[in-house]
Amino acid sequence: MDRTVTGFRTDGDDGWVAILDCHHGRHVRHHPPWPEGPWAQTEEGRQSMLGTVVDCPKCERIEMPDGLVHDRTTAEWNEDTLPRAVRRDHKVAGGVWGQARVIEGSIRFGFADGLGGEISGDGVLETGDKQPIPPNRPHHLEVIGPVRVVVDFFVMTS
Asked: Quick check: bond before 32 cis, omega within 30?
């Protein structure tokens, strides 16, 4: 999944890690056998790469980044009160991770981009299930029976 480089940090072993807009890190090594990235060794080189789009395998695997903190939770919705906007394709804001959480019953969750990542093959979430939602990834919820569901939102503190 494409993400934008927003900064850099070191990994503790003098290796550089690109910080992505999804809050994941991506190593940018310059030593074989890793892809060539000699630009990572200078401040000027790193600055030149800000805004570059790179692939984020962790987003493709729907892995929530470490260090996120709970920011807020939607109202509790049921099969009658689930907003129309949530039933259509929509996105969680950039830099924010969502997590659909089924309190009781079941819904169908689907990513609209066809890349997969739903916790079950048919997208059905049942009581106790949680589905992470990466930033800026189109998705929707579909009512398939009685349900109580909320969406939790997580942000990075620093």
From this structure: no
Instruction: Centre a 10 Å sphere on the Cβ of residue 28 and count the other Cβ atoms it contains.
Output: 23
Q: Give pLDDT, residue 32.
A: 53
Name the pTM for this structure.
0.87
Q: Which fold has domain 68-156?
A: Jelly Rolls (2.60.120)
Average model confidence (pLDDT) for the chain? 90
- Spell 106-145 as b/e; 16+ CB within 10 A means b: bbbbbbeeeeebbeeeebbbeeebebbbbbbbebbbebbe
Q: Where are the domains of the chain?
A: 2-60, 68-156
